[in-house]
Amino acid sequence: MTTEAPTGTPPAESAPPARGRTIAAGQAHTLAREALAAAGLPADRAEQVADALVTTSLRGIDTHGLRLLPQYLAELSTGVARATAQPAVVRDSGAGLLLDADGSLGVLAGLSAARLAAERAARYGVAAVGVRNSNHFGAASVYTRTLARAGLVGIAVTSAASRVAPYGGVEPLFGTNPISVAAGSDEQEFALDMATSQVCFGEVKQRRAEGRDLDGGWATDRAGRPTTHPDQAYALSPLGGYKGQGLAMAVTLLGAVLTGTAPDWRLSQVGEGSPGAGRGIGHLLLALDPAAFTGVDSFTGGLADLLTTVRTAPAATDRPVLAPGDPQRAHEQHRKVHGIPLDAHTAAALDELAVRLGVPGTEAGPA
Fold first, then answer.
1. For a tag site, which of 52, 57, 78, 353 has the least CB within 10 Å?
2. Sheet of 363-364: strands edge to edge?
3. Which sequence spans correspond to the domains of the chain?
4. CA-closest candidate to residue 97, choices 262, 289, 287
């Protein structure tokens, strides 16, 4: 899913210097929790969202971590997301359910769906939970890893406002439409979380702010021509050309069509929702219990074999071959010790919140 620039921060000329600033995970969690509670979320829900955002930042997925906190607070303040929402199951077929999120923050809707999926997979061996009437839910791996830690295989997709043009097209029709699959835990964890575009739009905005060119193949201009100039980027390009378009359409099919929600091109962007109205995003979560298939022991051994074989494969350079989730785990280990690095805009927004709430804010990081 794409992110927009946080709102509610001081103007550039009055913002404190923030280059090279960091925040410790514990301080970030306290700040996020207190800010979300002050915005009206019940304490347990504020805790859940804070945990999701901080964990995502710890794992190096900065576009979907703490950078989103100001935007989520803005959605709560304008009623795009409802602090008192009560998600409810509106269709129940046993192993298949449809959850109406009641306009809640997408993180809370996703976690509710993950809990339902885990409960039903324990009973039926498989479970699929569709979600409608939701909002931006951050990193899809938050939910698949929740299922993985419960001993299941987790799969998640979500619709998103259009940013990606179809292969050979001009106008953006599809969102960055992520796909996440996770299984196992700790060192024996497979955790795939990928967009179906070449890059998320947050990366384009970051390059624009830094005055840096885009990588080739990331975006096209208003005429559908490839561009490396961030100011000319009009649409993102699908991952792998027509194959990425096919994956994006598959996610729209599962996350929107199957859940009865609006397609990507009819969704508002993050930060552009109408006050008092949710963005109407759809998600789909699936949980598979290995016990219903090859058995837990066989699956655990097979997963370990898969990961070990990939990680020990001959490398073409001095860098080892990695499995999905390995870079994120390395980020997490490093950031737990050295703190979460922040871009200038996010650091300024968090410091403003910290002053308002009377809690510790960011710190000067390494030069």
1. 78
2. 340-341, 21-23, 363-364
3. 7-78+339-367, 89-197+238-302
4. 287
Residues of the chain with pLDDT under 70: 1-19, 271, 366-367
Residue type, 29: H
Q: What is the pLDDT of residues 190-229, one digit of tens each?
A: 999 999 999 888 789 878 878 899 999 999 999 999 999 9
Specify the residue for token string 């306290």. 30
Residues 6+ apart with CB under 8 A from 27: 359, 360, 361
CATH class belonging to 89-197+238-302: alpha beta
Interval 246-272: pLDDT, tens: 999 999 999 999 999 999 999 988 767
- Alpha-carbon distance of 129 to 118, in angstroms, equals 10
Nearest alpha-carbon partner for 83 in 92, 72, 91: 72
Counting other chains too, the contacts that 8-16 makes at CB distance below 8 Å and 24 or more residues apart are 8/70, 8/73, 8/74, 8/349, 8/352, 9/70, 9/345, 9/348, 9/349, 9/352, 10/348, 10/352, 15/344, 15/345, 15/348, 16/348, 16/351
Alpha carbons 36 and 72: distance in angstroms, whole number: 8
**CATH number for the domain whose boundaries are 7-78+339-367:** 1.10.1530.10
Q: CA 335, CA 366: separation in Å to the nearest integer?
A: 12
Cβ-proximal residues to 112 (8 Å cutoff; 6+ apart), any chain = 87, 99, 101
**If DSSP codes are grouped into helix, strand and coil, which group holds residue 233?**
coil
For CA atoms 289, 119, 260, 279, give the dihedral sign. Answer: negative
